[in-house]
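Dear colleague,

Following up on Tuesday's group meeting, I ran the structure prediction for the two-component complex that the binding team flagged. I've pasted the input sequences exactly as they went in, so you can double-check that nothing got truncated or mislabelled along the way. The structure tokens for the whole assembly follow below. Feel free to forward this to whoever is handling the docking comparison.

Inputs:
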Amino acid sequence: MTHGHALAEVRALVKEYHVGGGLFRPRAALRAVDGVSLAVARGETLGLVGESGSGKTTIGRCILRLAEPTSGEVRFDGEDVLALPPARLRALRRRMQIVFQDPYGSLNPRMRVGAAVREPVEVHRLEPKGSAAARVRALFAEVGLDPTYVDRFPHELSGGQRQRVAIARALSVEPDFLVLDEPVSALDVSVQAQVLNLLADLKRRRELTYLFIAHDLAVVRYLADRVAVIYLGTLMEVASSTALYAAPLHPYTVSLLSAVPVPDPDRRRARIVLSGDAPSLRRPPSGCLFHPRCPHPQKSDRCRAEAPPLREVRPGRWVACHYAEDPLPVPPA
Amino acid sequence: MKPLLSVRDLRTTFRTADGVARAADGVSFDLFPAETLGLVGESGCGKTVTALSILRLIEGPAGEIGAESVVEYDGRNLLQLPESELRAVRGAEIAMIFQEPGASLNPVLSVGTQITETLLAHRVMTRATARQRAVELLELVGLADAARRMNDYPHQLSGGMQQRVMIAIALSCEPRILIADEPTTALDVTIQAQILELLAHLKHQLGMAMILITHDLGVVAGLADRVAVMYAGQVVEEAPVRQLFAAPQHPYTEALLNAAPRLDRPADRLAAIPGAVPPATAWPEGCRFHPRCAYGWERCTTPPPHLEATPGHRARCWLVEQPSRRRA
């Protein structure tokens, strides 16, 4: 899946972790990401959706080279991120930033939040010492924080305010690209809406590009232009947000959408309830990774034997299913 | 109908470095036989503290339940019961499951042992009968290969399976009330769907009453018969589930419904609620929601009582008396 104006791109990305192993037992390789190719076009928000263990976070980290890929390519604005010498990598890192799920875990508890936002500015020498404070105040205002909060410590702020600090810190170095890794899933609904609106505003105002990693399909729908659905380290479906939510083509996407509880008691739906758990990555199933849980009526020996490639079944719609032409219907509301 | 459980004016406080936190501050509601009551609210609203107070699981000396508070069950006030009598109620008649099943299970005992011990603690039966009953319970909660799973330890099970085991332990003494505190919050969405289906199935099959504590209005809509919405230590609205979603009376309920992004109603912009939940050490004067409310006026500095909008539908909001102040 090449893209004309890709800002960030991974090609055939593989990330293995080595787990287990004892005195007499060899360590086993676990493929968290298994050959993912994905491009984020400049100015778009790509939603990367999956459940725990799907590899979505690992992909984000590999793009920023916070995790070292086992194989594959990572490109940012045309440059080969994996081949860059350290000095060039540092310069490139200024342009790509990350916001984590838990701002409490990502902010230094002993550092005042103003200093936390100023630190990257100083590391990248973006501002003469004297004017850094003014820049921090402007950033606080931009993310909707009272600039007098610069002298507070993280524990003196609410969860929503801490996440605003984390966003301000990411923006402080004027990046083009943000990896947002579950940025609102630790927040309460009322605060989650504030932060999602803020992210939408910032994107417009600063012409940012987002990789938005989340498990919540409703949240992703709000922000994403395109959505990639990942299961056990493999992409299942990639499509525009509009197309994917209107008519999902992969049985996993259909099942995920159908599992989301809708706040309407008159729509206690005929849910598709998948049986069992996602299989362990230590012993991935043969063929299509989703076949043991797949509810598609045409599921066949072919699904058990042959892994379906991610293929373009309609312009812009990529699906890894042998039966994508005959999709599982979404249960009626 | 006579309620199975009545909570009246429950006040639970905690002494903290910042002063006294009034976590549950005058909570009242009824639970009727075989009904599922959804207790909904955001973090810090007092929903979990309310549930823990019902079973007197509040840890002293920092935490304290007010002397005037009443939890009436079976003609007795659970808050005044001697510890020995309370122990017979806890677990056996009112059982509870929590958000993190991994943290509630004993890591060094097999699943079978944990269920068997619970049975033997509350019922007179032989160990062999208890083990047999344990297998039946694991089958009831849909754990595949139940007999073999008896020998598994919690870490060998997935999060969804652990929650099924927790439910099996909770059901082991056939409780009349199950309190489920965020039972699916830590689970993936496809596993959440399985557990919600299981709870719906058990509720019908066993005719058990349930208090379902959650922050997720979708979960409530799918499972609850009646809903109590909590904000800042109080129940601010109580209604049958359809009425609550069709015509929310409290502006907080309305705002909460509008703030969540929805699959069935995509939005260009989310209606966020301004500000943040105040700390429990300093609840606002008057209506506790009024500093964040879109409709607030002078009267809101006086705390509103529960006002009945329609039979069974009550809200702590002056708008119930003055609906014309609700702008379109």
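Chain A touches chain B through 46 residues (CB under 8 Å).

Cheers,
M.
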